[in-house]
Amino acid sequence: xxxxxxxxxxxxxxxxxxxxxxxxxxxxxxxxxxxxxxxxxxxxxxxxxxxxxxxxxxxxxxxxxxxxxxxxxxxxxxxxxxxxxxxxxxxxxxxxxxxxxxxxxxxxxxxxxxxxxxxxxxxxxxxxxxxxxxxxxxxxxxxxxxxxxxxxxxxxxxxxxxxxxxxxxxxxxxxxxxxxxxxxxxxxxxxxxxxxxxxx
Length: 200
Hints:
Blueprint: H1 2-40, H2 42-50, H3 54-79, H4 83-113, H5 121-124, H6 128-164, H7 173-197
Helix pairs in contact: 1-2, 1-6, 1-7, 2-6, 3-4, 3-7, 4-6, 6-7
């Protein structure tokens, strides 16, 4: 029985790392595409970056970094069989995820008000590099936001399973893998933040 449990845990880890590898390839390709266009339209990308809010970008960076800490504490508490604290830290992580989406939604709303979104008449009248910048901005941050939404669903599922006693100190593998996914979401944003908000 113990060997079967170890095998299942091992398979779970391998599966999770394979999934993370595919995500790295996906965003790696997008980062490469971004780099090519940034090299070609350096001045336009710089001018466009100034139009983004560094305050919102920095705030969301702080939110995600803190949420990575809280999910790590949730895993630690579960492993120590401190169920209530694990649920508290998991709830905090989920709240931070919603806060991230709220800030991002507000920021996107501002861009739509100013006509800085793909296919917008105003943006299409601007230089080609600016149009490409905002196209990449919405595509890449939108894809990242989708990963945040998936993360909320996955972490909420973990919350329910902990409440029901299906995730325990003896079997924390689902929360551990979910934590790895959440750290990936955090790391992706740490790359997106300087690429879009800190162009000099």
